[in-house]
Write the structure tokens for this entry.
Amino acid sequence: MVNIPALNHGLIGNGSLLALVSPTSAMEWLCLPSFDGPAVFARLLDDRAGGVFRILSGGRELQGEQAYLPNTNVLRTRFQDGEGRWEILDFAPRLPKAWGVEAPIRLHRVLRPLSGRVRLSIDFDPRLDYGQGPTRSLVLHDRVEVQGPGGPLHLQTNLPLSYVMGRREFTLEGPVYLSLSYGSVPPMTLDRVQRELESTRDGWVHWAKTCGLPLFKPELVLRSALCLKLHAFEDTGAIIAATTTSIPEAMGSERTWDYRYCWLRDAAFVVEALRRLGHMREGERFLRYLQTVAEAGPLQPLYGIDGSLSAPERLLGHLAGFGGQGPVRIGNAAVAQRQHDLMGELMLCLETLLRDPRLAHDEESHGFFPLVRRLVEEAIALAPLPDTSIWEYRTQEDHYTFSRAMCWVAIQRGAAIARRFGEHALAGGWQAVADRERSVILEQGYNTRLGFFTQTLGGLFPDASLLLLPTLGLIDPRDPRFLSTLDRYGNLLTDNGLMLRYRHADDLGAPTSAFTICSFWWAEALALAGRLEEAVSVFERVCAFANPVGLFSEDIDPATGRLLGNFPQAYTHVGLINAAITLSELLEARDGQVRAWSSPGAPAWVAEAVS
């Protein structure tokens, strides 16, 4: 019987680092000095060789109750052992600095007694470079220095260092801090740590206040927004797909991938989700990152967070893997794939940002037009050619309907941008190509005998990515072809009320897990088709699988409800935000809440407008 760990962790970070903390206090995942750097703690992937940083009571781990401080990414875990109660506050400092923030490569753990007598010990067991190389911990006069490949790290505390290194028990009589930093670090004191806690908490609260939340499920949307923000790399503007590597999509499979890189597709979706909530800075910084990588040569699906072009994939055979299920991979071979949907997602990102009056300054906007032209020309050239699809098949190149649809998006949106910039001749030519492309997709991508849009042109299989066709503007959501697709997908692609990407075999066999964002796409498509109650039901069903602090991984096992796949997955939280906003807008219109101060109870004209 495989023991599958629960992905019930909280995530902390500040734009420079990300760490996962379980409800037992165990910090089980941390990579330094960057999101895609080598792991320091990797117990998530090997409970013996991975390394961990935890607080023990009576030499054992206790199960605590986790929650974020309201509207922040500061994680609080509370414990009780007999009469003793205490809490741990875990956070990475995010400090105000002029017009931006300072995000040092540093995290703090603050232990505070709540009641009774508390006896604890510290298990600080870093394993540098995924546990591959030698790790030495030296006790200096005011800190522990961790030496080895990828070091040095420094641990500072107001406990006696001998207590930490000897794992000796101590009585928690007042606040204790444990501060872990990469590289050089200023001396820490309890007062300084508490000031950084206050500044970090206040900064997150201020960021949350500037979110324009929908009326529908605002708490879930805000937690998703805070999660997305943590995946944006402060240094370059890159946005990573997920915090982890090698958590399998399904147990017993080889579907283990490294998602700690900037997929341009995923990043573009994150930017749009945050823009819809009123946050523009992430989009501005990502566009600069995009310009930088675009100038380096042909666009590729993913990049290192520093803009590096290579992410060679290799296996770490010394790690057992999540729940003992390997292989553990670092790097991702998808970096060399052809994924033709890429131009469309980037163009959507460019178009929405360039037409947003909060950002659109003519001179600056014109500076992006060479990139617009390049994306359109590449989309026109690549649309008729096979690729590996949004699902990154490793051996199955084909003419994928979603890839062709996204090429249409790139061309059609490019024409709109060209018109805005006065490039009318270009706009006319591009629009003519876009019209032809749309005809190809609607004629060859829909199978009249099967009654649904198919994964490939002229194909036979359903594909959940095609639920996005109305969102992209390619087809009306109430077109009979799409309504039929919606019905057929609800039968063909669902398992226990959750939607899979597809069911047919790929490079590794037939998938068994539900790809979580697909269920949010399903909810949004149902809403756009006017089936609001059904959409709400799907949305709420999926949200019930969130972990105790509101985070989602990439996949859900329909048979057990367990979260699987890399965690937290930015794409999933994008799906939640977009579906919630769409549902909110349509529900508000249906219920007559379309004006300031309006109350529920739709007038007849509103009912007609949304029917």
Notes: The CA atoms of residues 85 and 115 lie 5 Å apart. The chain has a mean pLDDT of 93. The chain has 17 helices and 28 strands. The radius of gyration is 25 Å.
